[in-house]
Design the sequence.
């Protein structure tokens, strides 16, 4: 499959967002702790979501996706080896380790896959579980854990999203109190905590850098609607900024995208926010952004680095974008240059001299957000762009061609 894009259209319209992929994935993993029905609403139809549901089913649980509603029941789960065929499909498979260990006192999982944007170690996940009392054996093929978990005070070397989530979930059924210092502060962490508390857990402080989890005996089922997807929202906003037009995003929390709002304002967009709706207006050529660095929340999100590089490619003047989280997250720059951009990569910094126009080309998505950046470039470019390897894009955007054609983009899948 590939995407065919005829560039040059402005974008305008109103969009409602699905639940955030990076909130739903740990919530599905967390269902392992619950022996009753859990219903999750407004879930996008994504490859990564189905990968997590397949892992639950491979362990004997039930997990159904029906038009945006996910129903999971892990009452009959058995902790067997989760094999490589399943775990290589998504980085988020590692999230299942903490909950299984917490409920069954043993777990066996092959190493996770996911976007190739860097080495993506899991040392912080494993050291946190060890501090809770797990014995961990890493073989070539799998990670084997066992032990009864007891609350502990854990200081993370860096605010890893996944490690914070894994440790938080493992602590839910552990004996006693766990404190996580230097915890990640992303909104998806607070959302996972809200889900756990809706199931009868006791998690306090999520969203700050200190999270306290009081161990409980068991959790009960619930019906939950996760927060909307701030990265999909940001992708829409940047696309509108690049192509020109007017976009209204329904039901988005301004604090989730405030760093992006600041930079789009610097670039020359007009943004307004009222009653949970964000309006983005862009006309004429944007100005470059002299310096932008990605960072841990609430700084500029690494997941919007690639789409922002597309914006910088066609903005006036010189821009500089520094990627601070992942060591290999500029693969899309090669393809943007193929389309006529002027980007030089110096280590983890992209130096961009804005060009007046990009030309449509055949390009290849190499990871999820880089693929989205190429779609935005195609929507702007003169002529036709073909984006291949779109399975990467389908991991995080539900039918991206429908997403953009609904607001005026000339794009289809074949
Ligand atoms: C989560 O990945 C997201 N994925 C990523 O989104 C996102 O880019 C990332 O957080 C940062 O916000 C999901 O939530 C499923 P990290 P994660 O652990 O948890 C280092 C997307 O496009 N690190 O916060 O893997 C790591 O190398 C995806 O939706 C260790 O050193 O990210 C990186 O430099 C891509 N040891 C930094 O921490 C560890 O044990 C941040 O990684 C773990 C991480």
Sequence:
């Amino acid at each position: 499959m590939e995407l065919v894009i005829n560039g040059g259209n402005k974008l305008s319209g109103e969009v409602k967002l699905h639940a955030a992929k990076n909130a739903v994935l740990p919530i599905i993993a967390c269902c392992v702790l619950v022996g009753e029905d859990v219903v999750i609403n407004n879930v996008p139809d994504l490859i990564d979501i189905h990968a997590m549901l397949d892992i639950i089913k491979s362990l004997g649980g039930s997990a159904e996706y029906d038009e945006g509603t996910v129903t999971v029941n892990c009452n009959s789960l058995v902790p067997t080896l989760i094999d490589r065929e399943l775990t290589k499909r998504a980085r988020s498979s590692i999230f299942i380790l903490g909950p299984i260990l917490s409920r069954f006192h043993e777990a066996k999982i092959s190493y996770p896959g996911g976007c190739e944007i860097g080495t993506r170690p899991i040392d912080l996940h494993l050291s946190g579980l060890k501090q809770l009392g797990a014995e961990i054996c890493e073989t070539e093929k799998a990670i084997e854990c066992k032990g009864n978990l007891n609350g502990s005070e854990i200081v993370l070397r860096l605010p890893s999203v996944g490690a914070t989530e894994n440790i938080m979930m493992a602590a839910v059924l552990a004996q006693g109190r766990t404190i996580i210092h230097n915890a990640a502060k992303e909104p998806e962490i607070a959302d996972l905590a809200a889900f756990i508390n809706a199931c009868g857990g006791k998690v306090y402080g999520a969203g700050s850098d200190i999270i306290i989890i009081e161990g409980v005996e068991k959790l009960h089922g619930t019906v939950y609607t996760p927060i909307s997807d701030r990265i999909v929202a940001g992708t829409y906003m940047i696309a509108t900024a690049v192509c020109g037009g007017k976009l209204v995003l329904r039901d988005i929390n301004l604090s989730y995208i405030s760093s992006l709002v600041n930079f789009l304002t610097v670039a020359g967009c007009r943004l307004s926010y009222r009653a949970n709706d964000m309006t983005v207006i862009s006309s004429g050529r944007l100005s470059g952004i002299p310096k932008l660095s990605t960072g841990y929340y609430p700084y500029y999100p690494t997941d919007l680095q690639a789409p922002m590089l597309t914006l910088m490619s066609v903005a006036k003047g010189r821009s500089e974008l520094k990627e601070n989280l992942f060591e290999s997250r500029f693969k899309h720059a090669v393809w943007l240059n193929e389309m006529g951009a002027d980007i030089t990569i110096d280590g983890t910094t992209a130096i961009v001299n804005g060009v007046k126009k990009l030309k449509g080309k055949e390009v290849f998505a190499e990871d999820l957000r880089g693929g989205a950046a190429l779609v935005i470039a195609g929507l702007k470019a003169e002529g036709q762009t073909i984006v291949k390897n779109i399975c990467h894009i389908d991991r995080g955007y539900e039918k991206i061609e429908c997403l953009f054609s609904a607001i005026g983009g000339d794009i289809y899948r074949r």
User: Anything to note?
Assistant: The first strand starts at residue 3 and ends at 6. The chain has 14 helices and 23 strands.
